[in-house]
Amino acid sequence: MTERADTVTERADTVTERAATIGGPGQVLSAEQVQAFVADQLSRADLDGRSVCVLVPDATRSCPLPLLLGAVHGALAGRVTRLTALVALGTHSAMSEAQLGGMLGYPPGDVQSVYPGMTVRNHEWWRPDALVSVGTIGADRIAELSDGRLHTAVDVRLNRAVVEHDVTLVVGPVFPHEVVGFSGGNKYFFPGVAGQEIIDLSHWLGALITSAEIIGTLGVTPVRALIDEAVSLVPADKLALCVVPESGTGALHAMSFGDTASAWAEAAAVSAQTNITYLDAPVHRVLSLVPPKYDDMWTAAKGFYKVEPVVADGGEVIIYAPHVTEIAATHPEIHDIGYHCRDYFVKQWDRFSGVHWSVLAHSTHLCGAGTWDEHDGERDRVTVTLATGIPEDVVRGVNLNYLDPAAVDLAAAEADLDTFVVPNAGEILFRLR
User: Fold this and answer.
1) Which of 55, 261, 232, 237 is nearest to 163 (CA)?
2) Which ranges constitute the DSSP H helices of 6-115?
3) What pairs with residue 370 in β-bridges?
4) CATH dotted code for 277-432
5) N or C terminus of the chain: which is more exposed, having fewer CB within 10 Å?
6) Which fold has domain 5-274?
7) Residue 363 DSSP SS3
8) What's the CA gap between 290 and 358, in Å, rounded?
9) Cα–Cα distances in Å, from 278 out to 16, 405, 413?
10) Does residue 371 register a pLDDT over 80?
11) What's the pLDDT tens digit per position in 245-272?
12) 235-245 pLDDT, tens per residue?
């Protein structure tokens, strides 16, 4: 279960043709370059007279969606029979009309004024009638894809809008990711618009490998292999416009267009050079300043995932997010199980196997590396401290350390040689050289 992710990335690649790419590390694309690239690439695609479902991220990802979606709409309006933008929530909270309008660049309630003929929808993962099964991946195949870590069949369900359109176009960013290695591409199908079964399976597989091992790993990791296998069952044609944002600015370093595997691979290679920062030595304490786009700990936990690899044994990560007032509105089970290392669950599997595996995965990802046995209990490598708007009793009740956010002195932290302050935490991965 603990084999390093980088020992299992040499798989047969599913990329059949190199994607068209513009930009690269150290570059910043202009709006005119972005619009021209999208228009040129989509003009060559076989989309006339067909229906298109556009998968886009929610507001927890840096991405200039008004620019991108505007370019896509401009290239497809009048050519396609139907155009739907589907927000790939995974199991995040649904976005309100005001949030959708703000993210996509239209007056709330009036999408037609900016995107005439287009429909915008949340992925309603909580509604069984919004999902459809496209097949099953058998237990033996799961064992093969997971390098023997799991042996269980999975029903592959996803939003029915995907199969009810002729073509699905993924439009979204690629960043280092704690479950799959690098986000983007086929991940917008699974878990982006998926049913609970494969969300649970894919996230628990990532947890078994561990976040610190798989995050920022290029190539087809076991989790991406599982996702790619699931996507192969989806009947719609699949294209992707994968972008590499400059975190926190909304600008783009690069963008790639092609099939979902090749476009993702090109973008991931750029992201590995622009969204990973290397340190020469481990740090004792990290203060992660979490931006407002992460509005609960389910998402704000990225402020831990991206820094865990550089924290010294016995060190501490402080998640500073006074705006965060709850753990996870859509996943109350986390209050029952709390945050623990992977082995806490694996070695007590009879107690926890019935909990959604994606919740178990989130728990292990925020706790980080550690050990557990029935005699010595749990010993975690790093202390995780929340300086948030979540009440102290709630924080301690889920097995995390508490710090009053009013007690955090940012100026003093920046002057402290033992503290590494990370602004806009959650997208840039930090690793040791």
Assistant:
1) 237
2) 31-44, 65-76, 97-104
3) 380
4) 3.90.226.30
5) C
6) Rossmann fold (3.40.50)
7) helix
8) 22
9) 32, 28, 21
10) yes
11) 998 788 999 999 999 999 999 999 999 9
12) 989 999 999 99
